[in-house]
Amino acid sequence: MEAGDFKDFAKAMTDYIAEYLENIRDRPVVPLVKPGYLRPLVPEQAPDKAEPWTAVMADIERVVMSGVTHWHSPRFHAYFPTANSYPAIVADMLSGAIACIGFTWVLTMTEMDLKLKFETMEAGDFKDFAKAMTDYIAEYLENIRDRPVVPLVKPGYLRPLVPEQAPDKAEPWTAVMADIERVVMSGVTHWHSPRFHAYFPTANSYPAIVADMLSGAIACIGFTWVSWNYLH
């Protein structure tokens, strides 16, 4: 997938997720399908050519959502809801794009130092935030070779960039976007840079970033068949 297709796909998924979560109470809480429902809906063999993203979007309701238990429905009372939110979905997009394994301080200083507090977000703000993040990610990955591979900052760089105490009022998403380069990216090792040779690149792609958006929105723990039918 090229950057332009990613931007179209991610923005379409953003609209889908907002509509899904805003109207989740109208869906059956548990799936109405039976075991094996997925078999006739997918080909017996993987296709020789991948489907375009528009075909994937068209299949979401028919193939995926028909087998999902909607944990964030107000009528779901079997377990506590899983932890998801509009800001978390957007943060997962950026995390998936960076795709850095932060097991040492130098590999991703930001992971070691940074905690962000977001304001409660409505669907409209989520759509604006996610679409702005989509454009940012596409630009980041298309021009990643122009960035220093490893951070040029020193330990403790983050301390003067963030307040000593959590603010009384959370930041709007526009302020978070404005801080990404200054606060986050300055402490990141860019694993997908063509000049990064320390380890194998992590597994990320434009389609995977979009898939993570949908997974984060559904936020269902599939430990039984009835919770997550389409896995079977």
TrEMBL record:
<keyword id="KW-0456">Lyase</keyword>
<keyword id="KW-1133">Transmembrane helix</keyword>
<dbReference type="Pfam" id="PF00282">
    <property type="entry name" value="Pyridoxal_deC"/>
</dbReference>
<dbReference type="InterPro" id="IPR010977">
    <property type="entry name" value="Aromatic_deC"/>
</dbReference>
<dbReference type="GO" id="GO:0006520">
    <property type="term" value="P:amino acid metabolic process"/>
</dbReference>
<dbReference type="GO" id="GO:0030170">
    <property type="term" value="F:pyridoxal phosphate binding"/>
</dbReference>
<dbReference type="GO" id="GO:0042423">
    <property type="term" value="P:catecholamine biosynthetic process"/>
</dbReference>
<keyword id="KW-0663">Pyridoxal phosphate</keyword>
<dbReference type="GO" id="GO:0019752">
    <property type="term" value="P:carboxylic acid metabolic process"/>
</dbReference>
<protein>
    <recommendedName>
        <fullName>Aromatic-L-amino-acid decarboxylase</fullName>
        <ecNumber>4.1.1.28</ecNumber>
    </recommendedName>
</protein>
<keyword id="KW-0210">Decarboxylase</keyword>
<feature type="transmembrane region" description="Helical">
    <location>
        <begin position="86"/>
        <end position="107"/>
    </location>
</feature>
<dbReference type="GO" id="GO:0005737">
    <property type="term" value="C:cytoplasm"/>
</dbReference>
<dbReference type="InterPro" id="IPR002129">
    <property type="entry name" value="PyrdxlP-dep_de-COase"/>
</dbReference>
<dbReference type="GO" id="GO:0004058">
    <property type="term" value="F:aromatic-L-amino-acid decarboxylase activity"/>
</dbReference>
<feature type="transmembrane region" description="Helical">
    <location>
        <begin position="205"/>
        <end position="228"/>
    </location>
</feature>
<keyword id="KW-0812">Transmembrane</keyword>
<dbReference type="InterPro" id="IPR015424">
    <property type="entry name" value="PyrdxlP-dep_Trfase"/>
</dbReference>
<keyword id="KW-0472">Membrane</keyword>
<comment type="subunit">
    <text>Homodimer.</text>
</comment>
<keyword id="KW-0127">Catecholamine biosynthesis</keyword>
<dbReference type="GO" id="GO:0042427">
    <property type="term" value="P:serotonin biosynthetic process"/>
</dbReference>
